[in-house]
Amino acid sequence: MTFTWIDLINEHFGKVGARKVIIVALVANAMLALYGVIAVHLPSAPFYTGQPAFSAIFNSTPRIVAASLTAYLIASLFDVEVFAWWRQRFGEGQPWVRVIASNVVSTFVDSALFITIAFLGNAPVWSLILGQYKVKLAITGLSLPLIYARKLSWRPLRFLARES
């Protein structure tokens, strides 16, 4: 869904707007990961008995967080470029084609980077990449109706279109 939303933003605000959203989301995700690390290291309430489980869940390994943030950033930037290239090359008609074209590339890049960085040496990487890629392509297919939601109000997001 992320790549389809980025495509929608790209459709309405161009590459500049889409890149701004990518950077804001990257910073928000990095802050969330940092918050999880901080929360795990804070002392728990004296009556709380679930600290080991809390730590196990929120103390994500740095490798998983690094894999996630790296894959998100690189794949999202690929998505923006492929979408914009497709639009420039083939024109404004049939936005669903641009979404599919960009998502086919970006979801593979995302899956390959995340799985490789997170699990290389610990799991069968290629089969995990293919499985995740197939699921993401199915989600892309299900999300295609979003591109025709042109009646959405984009006014609150107009700041994305400004060059700065």
Total E-strand runs: 0
Reported for the largest beta sheet, the result is: none
What CATH calls the topology is Arp2/3 complex 21 kDa subunit ARPC3
Assign an overall shape: globular
Report the mean per-residue pLDDT as an integer.
85
Number of domains: 1
Order of helices and strands, N to C? Answer: HHHHH
Query: Count of DSSP helices?
Result: 5
What's the assembly state of these chains? single chain
Unreliable residue runs: none
What's the architecture, going by CATH? Orthogonal Bundle
C-alpha-based Rg, rounded:
19 Å
- Determine the strand fraction and express it as a percent band: under 5%
What does this structure look like?
This protein is an all-alpha fold and 164 residues long. It has a single domain, classed as Arp2/3 complex 21 kDa subunit ARPC3 (Orthogonal Bundle). 74% of the residues lie in helices and 0% in strands. It has helices at 2-41, 51-58, 62-90, 95-119, 125-143. Helix 4 (95-119) packs antiparallel against helix 5 (125-143). The protein is globular, with a radius of gyration of 19 Å.
